[in-house]
């Protein structure tokens, strides 16, 4: 899976948690815990950085300046 698709899934998970989606639940003797919001936000931040670097749209760009002769 590429970074952009993973970022979309992370953002969907964040949205689900913010709109009342369960972060953990139990059925009988089994319990499931999803990632918490802080973990998802950290992962989102890292993925955004990767996507920006890959697209060249990051906050910093390298400029090559030359002298006019």
Describe the fold and architecture.
This protein is 51% helix and 12% strand. The chain has 69 residues and is mainly alpha-helical. The protein has a domain at 3-21 and 33-55. A two-stranded antiparallel sheet has the order 1-2. A hairpin with a 2-residue loop joins strand 1 and strand 2. Helix 1 (3-18) runs antiparallel to helix 2. The longest helix is centred in the middle third of the chain and has 19 residues, at 37-55. The radius of gyration is 19 Å and the shape is rod-shaped. The N and C termini lie far apart (49 Å). The mean pLDDT is 78.
**Discrete helix count:** 2
% residues in beta strands: 5-15%
Unreliably modeled segments: none
Output the strand order for the largest sheet: 1-2
Query: Main sheet?
Result: 2 strands, antiparallel
* SSE topology string: HEEH
* Radius of gyration of CA atoms, rounded to a whole number: 19 Å
**N→C terminal distance:** 49 Å
* Count of strand segments: 2
Global geometry: rod-shaped
Output the structural class: mainly alpha
Proportion of residues in helical segments: 40-55%
Overall pLDDT level = 78
In terms of quaternary structure, the protein is single chain
